[in-house]
Design goal:
Structural class: alpha+beta
Shape: globular
Strand order of the largest sheet: 1-2-3-5-4
Order of helices and strands: HHEHEEHEEHEHEEEEE
Radius of gyration: 21 Å
CATH topology of the largest domain: Diaminopimelate Epimerase, Chain A, domain 1
C-alpha cells in the first residue's frame, strides 16, 4: 500500500512512543488495504464469465498491491484459476494470477507468452503484463490451453486429508498439525471434511459484515467456526457438509478450538 520502510522503522523503534506512532500508521495502511481489497473483489466477482475455465478480469487503475489477493479470493470462490489485471490508463494491463486445484497456471499462461510484455511465476501464482489490444486474444487462448491440458476438476479439494467427526477435534490434533509447520506451497495446511453438520448460528461480523461466525452441531457436539470474506447466507437449522482447517483461537487469555471454514455444501 506504501513504502515498506514504514514497517522497518516500526521494527527498529527505540522507544515505546515511536513504536506506537509507527504502529498506528501501519494499522491505517492495513485498514485501507482491506477496504480497497474488498471493493476490487466485489468488482471482479461482478465481471466473471462463469463459462470460462480460466477467469480473467480487469479494471481501471485497480491497486496493484492487492490484485494478487483478489485473484486468490475469486479463484477460491469459483474454484477456477483466476487472473486479475489493472489498466494503468496508458494501454498496459498489469496484474497477478492464482491457480486452483491441479491446474498449472504458469504452463497455461506460458503457452500464450507471445501476447505478453512481461511474465513470471510458478505453478500456482503468476505475475504478468500485456497490451490491452492483446487481451481478447490472450483470454481466448487461455481457455484453449486449459482444455488442451486435460485438467480434471477434483470432486474434492486434494488438500483434504480426510473426514473428521467433531468428537475427534482436540488440542492434541492442533498440536500435531503445528508440528508440521510452516505450511505453504508444497506443504498445504491440512483440511478436513465434516458431514451432516447442522448450522445452529450464522452471524455476520466485521465493519462491513464481510465475515460469518458459526455455531455448528454434529452428534450432540457443538463447534465454533469462522468464515472470512464471504457474502453467503445460510438458513439456521440446515444440514451441511463443511470443509475447514482447525486452529486454536486465543482471546483474553482463553484458548478454544475453532473451525476455519473454507466451504459449506448444502445437503
Amino acid at each position: 500500500m506504501d513504502d515498506a520502510k514504514y514497517s522497518v522503522e516500526f521494527l527498529a523503534s527505540s522507544n515505546i512512543y515511536d513504536a506506537r506512532v509507527r504502529l498506528s500508521r501501519l494499522i491505517d495502511f492495513n485498514n485501507s488495504r482491506k477496504a480497497i481489497e474488498q471493493e476490487i473483489t466485489n468488482r471482479a466477482l461482478a465481471q466473471v464469465d462463469q463459462n470460462d475455465e480460466v477467469i480473467v478480469v480487469e479494471g481501471e487503475e485497480w491497486h496493484e498491491g492487492v490484485v494478487g489477493i483478489v485473484a486468490a479470493r475469486v479463484a477460491r470462490h469459483y474454484e477456477k484459476p483466476c487472473i486479475v489485471l489493472s489498466n494503468n490508463g496508458e494501454g498496459i494491463l498489469k496484474g497477478s494470477g492464482r491457480s486452483f486445484g491441479s491446474c498449472n497456471l504458469f504452463a497455461i499462461t506460458n503457452a500464450s507468452r507471445s501476447h505478453l510484455e512481461k511474465f513470471g511465476g510458478h505453478h500456482a501464482a503468476i505475475g504478468l503484463s500485456l497490451h490491452i489490444d492483446s487481451l481478447k486474444s490472450f483470454k481466448k487462448e487461455l481457455q484453449i490451453n486449459y482444455a488442451q491440458g486435460n485438467y480434471l476438476k477434483d470432486e474434492l479439494d486434494p488438500d483434504i486429508v480426510g473426514e473428521l467427526n467433531f468428537k475427534d477435534i482436540s488440542f492434541e490434533l492442533t498440536q500435531l498439525i503445528q508440528k508440521y509447520q510452516p505450511y505453504g506451497q508444497g506443504n498445504p495446511t491440512p483440511k478436513f471434511l465434516s458431514k451432516n453438520v447442522k448450522i445452529l448460528q450464522a452471524d455476520t461480523m466485521g465493519k462491513e459484515a464481510e465475515h460469518l461466525r458459526f455455531t455448528f452441531l454434529q452428534d450432540g457436539i457443538t463447534m465454533a467456526g469462522v468464515q472470512f470474506k464471504t457474502r453467503e447466507s445460510y438458513e439456521i437449522g440446515s444440514s451441511v457438509d463443511v470443509i475447514y482447517t482447525v486452529n486454536e483461537n486465543r482471546f483474553r487469555g482463553n484458548v478454544s478450538l475453532q473451525m476455519m471454514v473454507e466451504k459449506i455444501v448444502l445437503i
